[in-house]
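Tutorial handout. Part one gives the primary structure; part two gives the three-dimensional structure as tokens.
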Amino acid sequence: MKKSVIISILLIYIVAIVAVGTLGQKLQVYNPIVYVESIECNTENYNTYSEQDKEKQNADGFIWVPFSKDVRIDLKCWALPNNATNKDLNYWFDDKNSKKMDLEKHADYTASIIFHEFVPTVTITVKAADNFSINAKLKIKILLYVI
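Part two.
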């Protein structure tokens, strides 16, 4: 090959590299993972404990509910921020009460608790299901009373 052809190919090659480097796509994450930072509760009659009482009560808040057979409590909790990748929440309670109450988890990440027998106090733990949000947990104490 002639010297001029080699130099032309080399120049075109260098120009192409510079053009792709300046005008090409920038690297970015197309599907960033957003983890749950906190869980919020907007259940009827839900009250939040003060910071001092949270430690004493070992719960974040409470719900007072008058007891009647098969009383149903709808827990309306959701994960924050709203753009979290996995907004799924896990609900659980102590197994010693499993025959006295049922917990139903719904597709919209809420849950319902049905009390078949009187249980004075139950603590429901709500935790983010993404397994990375260690601090995204909410403990709700349900206090039943007889009318």
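Part three, for discussion. The first helix runs from residue 3 to 23. The chain has a mean pLDDT of 87.
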